[in-house]
Design goal:
Rossmann fold; alpha/beta; 2 domains; single chain; seven-stranded parallel beta sheet
Amino acid sequence: MKRVLIADSIEESALARIKAAGLDAVVRNKDADGPIEKQIKGFDCVVVRSATKITREVIEAADKLKLIVRAGVGLDNVDSEAAEEKGIEVQNTPEAPTVSVAEMVFAMMFAMARNITQADSSMKEARWEKKKLTGTELWNKTLGVVGFGRIGYEVARKARALDMEVLAYDVLDISKACQKVGAKKTDLHDLIKNSDYISVHVPLVPQTKGMFGEKEFSMMKKSAFLVNTARGGVVDEKALLKALNEGEIAGAALDVFENEPPLDWELVKHPHLVATPHLASSTTEAQVRVGELTADKVIEGLK
């Protein structure tokens, strides 16, 4: 019988499907089971989310491993190069949280445009600040989408439904996708200069680390807002704090951070920042989809 190590929790329905397929699924208890390097021996597949790191050391300690499934988007916590060297297949489920993340982008944009968090806080403190909290509309504003994969495309599609102009940038050829959704393909410099809102949807790789720093914030409109639901390191947090303090941009919304939870909370507490604890894909529907797709990939991959 092939064995599957569930290193991070997945939906019960997905676990049941893996077991029903005749696989021996073991749910890891981090406290009781010790280092994963020691536990990985004897397993044909390991399932992770974002907490467990499948490093080169883990991969080299494995003796039977054929498949790594990351339940979620991105492979930041898996050493894909080391896996490839040992002939281990690596899969993830990027399709699952597309709608949830795209909706979160608009939740954050509306929160910034209409001062929702400030209004809620002041009301809870029995303060009526109607005049102080006048907002703006998203209608007819320009949204720059950086990274035009599944999620970026879905954000653009929803933005067009709100009559927003959409500028799109990617290192890949996105001409057909832009044409289909009614977005304008452009370069990063033009997007940064001309957007009222910028939403980031790129993986964290050496080329994207610190992609938004002092130079980029100085190019943005003073009335512009930045949204990051992708990966923390893509935005230089020190540069963002400086830009907010100096009024270089109007505000920002972050769902992801360089360290999670943050080591320094100064940026999080800034009055012009909307902050959430990596919630973009945390919806009931997305988690069910992640579980189902994970189960599919484990079962198919071990056939």
